[in-house]
Amino acid sequence: SQTIHQWPATLVQPVGSPLSLECTVEGTSNPNLYWYRQAAGRGLQLLFYSVGIGQISSEVPQNLSASRPQDRQFILSSKKLLLSDSGFYLCAWSSGGSGANVLTFGAGSRLTVL
Amino acid sequence: AQSVTQPDIHITVSEGASLELRCNYSYGATPYLFWYVQSPGQGLQLLLKYFSGDTLVQGIKGFEAEFKRSQSSFNLRKPSVHWSDAAEYFCARGTASKLTFGTGTRLQVTL
């Protein structure tokens, strides 16, 4: 069966420090991978998605970047964190490229920038 | 842009009462619609989905949703709410490779 792992679960970082959140999927190949951010009262905002290695689509201009160095690995990064980067970050995967595909989510990473 | 609207930010119901959470989507040819649930500090779990066919879909945990094209709605229902249903509920629409989510409805259940 497929599983998705996301870490770290909790992170407290000072403003201006770098960030790296990692997500891996097991039990499937060539998944679509996603990073969402959830801020209080704002629902889920799609940040990046990837349909293959090295293919990254950015949905929102921001202080963050994403990379997919391996088929089942998706990394969210920042060189210098801002206070506004605080939030709950969710990684997800799906098995194909249509709107009918179900997303399966990781447990999330809570980032607090101080 | 295609969007999803959940007009109720917060709903409180008594345990055993019925529940309806509203969801409206912007017009589109073939709506793929989903409901997810999120417990505090957790990821999202799929409750049910609608792609085509029967407009009343059944999901896990006793939830159901009805797709109404004329009203551009996909409301989530449960006949009798349990205290463990307290969570945040998200409606979503699938297009191409992505899901667009509503802002969520937080459900509180009183005993």
Strand content of chain A: over 45%
The greatest interface here is: A-B, 29 and 27 residues
Helix/strand/pairing category of chain A: mainly beta
What general outline of chain B do the C-alpha atoms trace? globular
Order of SSEs of chain B: EEEEEEEEEEEE
Order of helices and strands of chain A: EEEEEEEEEEE
Number of strands of chain B: 12
Overview of the molecule:
With 114 residues, chain A is mostly beta strands. Chain A contains no helices and eleven strands. The model of chain A has no long low-confidence stretch (mean pLDDT 92). In chain B, 0% of the residues lie in helices and 53% in strands. Chain B contains no helices and twelve strands. Chain B has strands spanning 4-5, 10-14, 19-21, 24-25, 32-38, 44-50, 56-58, 64-68, 73-78, 87-95, 98-101, 105-110. Chain B starts with a strand and ends with a strand. The chains are: A mainly beta (114), B mainly beta (111). The A-B interface holds A 6, 32, 34, 36, 41-44, 46, 49, 51, 59, 88, 90, 92, 94, 97-108, 110 and B 6, 9, 30, 32, 34, 36, 41-46, 49, 51, 90, 93-104.
Give me a quick take on this structure:
The complex is a heterodimer of chains A (114) and B (111). With 114 residues, chain A is mainly beta.
List the helices and strands and how they pair.
The complex is a heterodimer of chains A (114) and B (111).
Chain A: E1 3-7, E2 10-13, E3 19-26, E4 32-38, E5 44-52, E6 55-58, E7 65-70, E8 73-78, E9 87-94, E10 104-105, E11 109-113
Parallel strand pairs in A: 2-11
Antiparallel strand pairs in A: 1-3, 3-8, 4-5, 4-9, 5-6, 7-8, 9-10, 9-11
Chain B: E1 4-5, E2 10-14, E3 19-21, E4 24-25, E5 32-38, E6 44-50, E7 56-58, E8 64-68, E9 73-78, E10 87-95, E11 98-101, E12 105-110
Parallel strand pairs in B: 2-12
Antiparallel strand pairs in B: 1-4, 3-9, 5-6, 5-10, 7-8, 8-9, 10-11, 10-12
Tags for this model:
A: 114 residues; mainly beta; seven-stranded mixed β-sheet; 11 strands; globular; B: 111 residues; six-stranded mixed β-sheet; four-stranded antiparallel β-sheet
